[in-house]
Fold:
Amino acid sequence: MKKQIIVFTVLISSMAFSAVLPTDIREINEVREPKTNTTRVNVCSVVSTHLSNRGLDKKIAQQRVLKYWKNDEYANSLMVENIVKRFKELNYQDVISYVSNAVLFQNNVDLSSYSHIVKLVHKSNKLTLDKLALAKIESVASENKNIRLYT
Structure:
């Protein structure tokens, strides 16, 4: 009898609290562990979720991302992947944080721009900006320009 009551209580409580869980669990898990080979994460929605978690209204966050982040969603996700793959010191969360901070303060973001990638690397404080790093940034910027043009 006690076992049936416990099972019934667990069943009812799981049904009651399932509506309370956030709907973006899949998106949050992909931010922690992006699966670049199998699925492409919608980085625009990840940035808007990041902004709304910081206190900005969801609709305003989405509008700002669309207004201040140049290019389309597919090109942006390819550019983010390219930056993360080429710079082993940077991770996915560093790029998302940089973009969300720039969008929060209403600054345009273009990851195919040399100056924006230099700002990203500089603000991460994980890489020194020597000649080798600047040459690498230049090649990443040109690759990202090709991504922007051909997508």
